[in-house]
Amino acid sequence: MIRTAILTSRQILVGGRSVGCVGSRVQRGCCPLPAPHLLRLHRLITNSIQDPSLRRFRLYKRVFAASLFAGTLVFAWYLKKQKGIKLRAILEDFTRLPIDESLFGTPVSVYRYKGYIFPGQLVMSGVFKELPDFQFRQDDVLVASYPKAGTTWVQEIVHMLTHGCKKTNENSEVLETRFPYLEYPYPGIKSLATRKEKRFIKTHLPIGLLPSSFESSNAKLIYIARNPRDTAISYFYFMQLLTQSSFQGPLSSFVDMFLSDKVMYSPYFGHVLGYWQSRQSPNILFVTYEELHQDPPKVIRKMAEFLGIDVSDAEVNYVAECTSFNHMASNPSVNYEHWKDYGFAFKDKGKFFRKGKVGDWQRHLSQSQVAAFEEWEKKHLEGSDLRFSYTLPPQGDAE
Predict the structure, then answer these.
(1) SS3 state of residue 82
(2) H/E element holding 286?
(3) Can you give the pLDDT at residue 349?
(4) What is the largest CA-CA distance in the chain?
(5) Active site positions, annotated
(6) Cα–Cα distance measured from residue 134 to residue 137, given in angstroms and rounded to the nearest whole number
(7) Alpha carbon of 381 to those of 116, 214, 224, 387: distances in Å?
(8) Contact between 287 and 154 (Cβ < 8 Å)
(9) pLDDT of residue 16
(10) Would you say the pTM of this structure is higher than 0.90?
(11) Positions of the chain with pLDDT lower than 70, given as ranges
């Protein structure tokens, strides 16, 4: 607008013309102004341009704009640098492993840490940096296992035993709320650490990666192991069910990964034998899926005694009935069907409670795959007194 006024004033002085409205073209005979007024207008506009305070203001404005732009760039660089430092700290001692991406329907990453394989989701959450500082308490109860070995089954048994042998139902809190997953990002290890009430904790960590406070805490831990063949089959279907993995390869590819110790929480035998060798600890109870399947009341009573809980035969039988496969598969608080509503599991790829049988591997594995399992098992069990049951007489099912 000032530029327009200057040009207009110059036209007035040079051409003897008058100005129209501000911003309009200069026209003859429109709103004539006396010559003295025109001179004063020209001087006012010229002096405003030459005013030192105005020039300084404009200079400060440019400097401020340039500084703001530069500051934004520096801050962005700083945030990126800090993110890189944090990422390097999280991934310290972790090795990312190559995977066949064609086997998965979603981006998946896996890392090796102290000899074990972990999903990138856990690693990137930073939980492994927090685990060493976690403090167990004397009254904590843990249920540990290699994945798909009967963890949910034992969790629900423990919950009933420690809550007056009362059955849960659709109105109960879901199992992952009652029994938080130690190393999972939600609800998180910090949230678990602040719980005031008695804590029930699930974990798939090998014994060597448990927080060191466990050994001196006198917390109780029940470990359940399942024969590797049925574990592999159950794990295969589970990886197909989860949206975060969306395994799309054939069973043969998964079996190869399992036997090569490339699936999450592997190596299988390192995991199982670690707890087996520590079973003499008064704070660790080692049970197998097969013995729990064969004689539920016997193993349930063993768990109750381990936890220091007095139960009657009627209560033991009631717990066994309520935690049978059919009952748990229809119990919304434990069957994980809500995962499908939350998008954690596919709605058209089966259920969390699938079969619950011992020996289901016989319907899936070829002769060559069975031979590969036998050789693998013999190699890793050499020198150990741990033995698995691979089949049982037909009877009621449980998971």
Answers:
(1) helix
(2) strand 284-288
(3) 85
(4) 118
(5) 204
(6) 10
(7) 18, 27, 17, 8
(8) yes
(9) 43
(10) no
(11) 1-51, 54-57, 59-61, 67-68, 73-87, 395-399
